[in-house]
Each structure stands twice: as structure tokens, then as C-alpha cells.
Amino acid sequence: MRGAFKLGNVAGIGIYIHWTFAILIIFIIFSNYQSGNNTQQIAWAVLFVLSIFVTVFLHELGHALAAKRYNIKTKDITMLPIGGLARLESIPEKPFEELVVAIAGPAVNIALALFTGLFIKLPNTEVLIAELSNGVNAHNFFLNFLVVNVWLALFNLIPAFPMDGGRVLRALLAMKFERHIATNIAARIGQLLAIGFIFLGFYGNPMLIFIGFFIFLGAQAEAQMVQTKSMLMGYTVKNALIQQYQTIEATEPVSTAVHLLLNSQYKTFLVTQNSYPVGTLNRDDIIRALSQKGDAEPVAFVMDTNLVFIDAHLPLEEAYQQMQQQQANFVLVKENDRFIGIVDNENI
Kindly report the CA angle at 52 between 46 and 54, in degrees rounded to 5? Predict the structure, then answer.
């Protein structure tokens, strides 16, 4: 993610923090100063916010380590002002595995709350409310920490897909229904709850509006992805193979690419050198080249050299998933180590 700085690695997973996290710390300091809090009170408030983000990191790490158990890698974990983001290479498709991975995050919060509870005395409800209303200080720091972990566990277990609770719901439904049907049911429930969050946000916490939109759009996107994969099952890459496509030699000037773009229906060209693929060139690449280098620039210096090769006999749903993960609209197909054509998202 742009603007994220690497802190290190844990269990082979890159840990990043986004620069906007500094804005949150500055905001906490400024708001506490405006409220008349002294330096010690401000320090406890900042320390508490940092402890929450350590908790969120451990929550995401719980998902990542559970996924690793099923040979699913996590690309990285990025800490943002609104929480953590663990990028798993894929979501487990077996219901029980998805259930374990989904529940691992909230389980970490519950474990932290139980561990903290061993070292503090829990007050009755009336005293608890009074303690929490006094802000964070040395006396109630761990009590606040326990309450936040309980709240995070319960909030994440709300069955609003694609939150953890929604994935738990999808996993349970998938034990009885086909995965795409289970996803549709979980997504619709999630979107209904999202509308509720948005409605409540207008009358209470505006952050709920943001969360509601995130859930609504996230549920829709994943439901469409699973539906597409379901429709592609039973086909291989070879079924979607394109053998007629526009090529352009790497030594040709950009002006040749402009001519091809204006006089054909192709928007992406395969760049070749001695009849072998060496790159791709799309409409955006051509426009960028014209504005920065002119139409006489050889295609070889402006093409995208990041070629993605896939096997002709790979299941089409797996190929589609790989293309989505690598943000590739255009991949090259090989059969027995021989280049035989291309596949793009439009043809799929």
C-alpha cells in the first residue's frame, strides 16, 4: 500500500504502518490538550491508543496464522488509523477452514480479555461505568483494555458479511448449501445490517456510516466474485483462449501503436520481439508515452514488461482469481512450455 512503512516481519509476514497513523496520534494529543488534560493524562491516552492498535494487529495476525495452517499465505498486514488489514492470498473455500480462519481474530481478543481479567478485579456495573467515564489513567488502564477487547470481539462477530461474523455465517451456511448460495445469503444479511449501520450513523456515531458503506460494497463485490467463480467451474483456460490478437514489434515507434489503436477494436497489444512476447501495451501506456516522450519513442521503452503466464489446463476459476489478485487484465497462455495465445477478463 502506498504511504506504508515496513516495521518488520512476523512469521514471514510483512508488517506495515501507514503514515496517516501519525495524524491519529496528533489528533489524540490535540483533543486531550483542548480538553484541558495535563501531560500525564495525554501520555496515558496515547499509550492506550497504541495498545488498541497492538490488539488489532494481534487480531489480524490471528487470521494470518490460522490461514497459514491451511497453506494460505498472507502477503502483509498494514496498520491504518481505522484498523488493521491482513491481505490473504485467498479465502479458504472449505467451510470448516473458513470458520477457523474467520473466528481466529475475535478469539485473540477474547483471549486477551480473559488474560487481562486474571490481573484485575472486575467492578460491578455501576462502578464500571463510573471508571470508564473518567478517561484512561494508571488506575483504570487495564480495565479499559479488557473492555475494548470484549467490544472488538463482539463487534467483529456481528454477522455482517464480509466482517468476521459474516464469514462465520457463510462458513456455517456452506456446510448445507453450495458456496455461492451461502455467500449470497450472507451478503444480503450483511447488506441489511449495513443499511442499519448507516441509518444509526446519522443519529449517532458518523463512523458507523463509513462502516456501513464498507460492509455494503464489500459484500456486493465478494458475492459477485464467488458467483463468477461458480459459473466458471468445469472450464479450463483453454476454453477461453484467444488466438487472434493484435501484436506490435518492440522496435516500432509509438505512432504505430496510435494508428493501431484508432483503426482497430483492440485496446491492449501484445509486444513481441522476434515473434516472442516481451510485454504489453495498452491505451493508458500509449497516452502516457505521447505526453512524456512523443510518438517517435520505440514501444520497447514504454511497454509493460510484467507478463503473467498461466497454464492452458488450469481451471478457469483459478486463473480468474489469479488475474484479480495480480490486477492483470491480460495474461499469456502456455501449453507444454509453448506460447499458444492469450486470455483477458473480457473474454472470460
Answer: 105
pTM, whole model, 2 decimals?
0.73
pLDDT along the chain (348 residues), means of 10: 80 84 81 80 87 90 92 86 78 91 95 92 74 76 90 91 91 92 92 92 84 88 85 89 87 90 84 87 88 88 87 89 78 87 84
What the block records as the C-alpha cell of 65 is: 496464522
Helix, strand and coil in the chain, % to nearest 5: 55, 20, 25
**How many of the other CB atoms lie within 10 Å of CB of 203?**
7
Please give the backbone phi and psi of residue 345, each rounded to the nearest 5 degrees, phi first. -60, -35
Q: In the prediction, which pLDDT does 149 show?
A: 93
**Cα–Cα distance measured from residue 180 to residue 177, given in angstroms and rounded to the nearest whole number:** 8
Where do the DSSP E strands lie in the chain? 4-10, 13-18, 74-80, 83-88, 247-249, 268-273, 276-282, 309-311, 330-335, 338-344
Task: Give me the residue label for grid cell 449501520.
Answer: 197
Residue with cell 444480503: 188
Measured distance CA(243)–CA(226) in Å, rounded: 28
Length of the chain: 348
Q: Name the DSSP letter for residue 308.
A: -
> DSSP alpha helices (H): ranges in 267-310?
283-292
Yes or no: say if 346 and 282 are a contact pair by the CB < 8 Å rule.
no
